[in-house]
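Page 42, continued from yesterday. The earlier attempt failed because a stray header line got pasted into the input along with the sequence. Redoing it now with the clean sequence only.
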Amino acid sequence: MSKTKVIAFANNKGGSGKTTTCSNVGCAMGLAGKRTLMIDGDMQMNLTISYFDEETALEFAKSGKNIYQAVKEEKDLEDCIVPTKFEGLDMVTSSSLMSGIEFELFPKWQREFVLRKCLSRVKASGKYDYILVDAPPTLGSWVMNILCASDHVVIPVEASPWGLFGLANMFEFCNLSKQLSPGTEILGIAITKANERKKYFRQTVETLKELEDTRLFETYIRIDSAIEWSQDSSEPVVAFKKSSRSAIEYTNLTKEIMKYADR
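This time it went through. Structure tokens are written below.
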């Protein structure tokens, strides 16, 4: 049986730091010697641009080797994998055509399981220790596909007055996914964009700690300009500036995620 763990990074609220978290956790896993595949499931292509310059990302989007074409044609993802510049860290890139993925999924038989089918051979091969999927900030058939294909879900939550908005809907959606895929579990909530000096940060932490049966990761990611500089350079901050506060925090968060995912 394959030991590959599929972990989705999802939150229906935009601006939660979801893609940045997925990007840096994936890179930290690779730097730790874990064979990792990342899948950019968002039409905004931000995960792709986290590793490739814009021109290269657009070339991937125009090619037939991206997540949109794989799902549309229900083909194996092995043909869509491209290497990043980091050893042991690969990616299935996105396309702006992902804006039409709901339309493509609608007529398909067992449409909630198309991604699982596309992933089946890669996962069964055991080539990767982890497969990370960056979900778009929506709740629909495509995100349901992502959840049903995943073993675990990490929910990044922004420590802001609006950070908790819609979180109840996310939990409800995860519960719906369990009816279709009972093995999918919420691994935990990761607090991002934290400012310890702000009252709402403490309020966010207190509220999330009160949630029953939901893990709150001990490591939270504070606001750090190094993240923005790394994004401008199309490189995760854990590689761009390893000594930065955010790089250290993302590395520690990754250790937590791996510890709980491997149980």
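Notes: The chain has a mean pLDDT of 94.
Reminder to self: strip header lines before submitting.
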